[in-house]
Amino acid sequence: MVKPNTANIVAYSGGVDSSLVAALVQRTFSDSDGFDSSSFVRDGDNNNGLSKSGSVLAILGISPAVPKSQILMARRVADKIGIPLREVETSEGADETYMANDGHACYVCKTHLYSTLKMVAKSAHEQIGVAGAEEDLQRNVLMFNGTNLEDTKDPTRLGLLAASEFEVHSPLDCVTKDQVRQAARHLGLPNWNSAASPCLRSRLAMNVLATEGHLRAVEHAEVFVRRILDLDETVNARVRMLPGELAMVELDAAVLGVLGKDVARDLELHGFEQKCIEWGFKSFGGVRSFRTGSVAAMRKIETPRRDKVAAAT
After folding, report:
1. What is the mean pLDDT of residues 68-83?
2. E strands, the chain, where?
3. How many domains does the chain have?
């Protein structure tokens, strides 16, 4: 998929899936026949990783839905890979459909993300000296994401529709999560065994508004829980905001078994409920076993057309 005379753009989050794709795109681009490594300029110089032959770039979308810890991990991993990284602000939070969080938010979010990537890609496209016609842009800019095989089987991931509409390549769509981790470990990526870290919006139950305040409340609560319970990055730990702005802590079942039955009490003794109220929850609802995927069951919904969503970008 990777071409040395093309702007190769990776939709990058710092999670293990997109990190593996970034590492493979970077390696493939660098090893491409005819590529002159001496002409390659890394991020921090004048042209964000552009060479006379083409470019490779990882783009991290920044919004209130991305926790600070994830941004730090993304920077660390990109530095390890050696891929140029650009951080760009995305605007899905201003989209009423996204904020409503009624089942369309993932699609809207990815539409905004890929629209942003396309604008960055257009800039890269122009810098490598190719004519700016739209058909040339499609031929000379390739976008990649970290979608794996299990993601393709999850009906709640409406962002996959946006990826399809934007013709984003998914090199891992026939690879399981376990295989992704094995490959990432083989390549020495520091996040190979880190727990999945989807966006903070995924912690909100359906129809709980995806406001910046709610997203920040979840982020603060998760940092607190990890610190008090001394949980490292390999442990699944979520703080969900359920209907009524109720805080529900979810932990891996194995971790709950080790910590015992008094996890909720331990958190309360450290003032967790009062902190939750200060952050924007109404109350603390307790602790339960971690459940992967969306907070609430998805009902069958009609996906909005991209042209309507993109109008807000």
Report:
1. 97
2. 7-12, 55-62, 85-89, 141-144, 237-242, 246-251, 283-289
3. 2
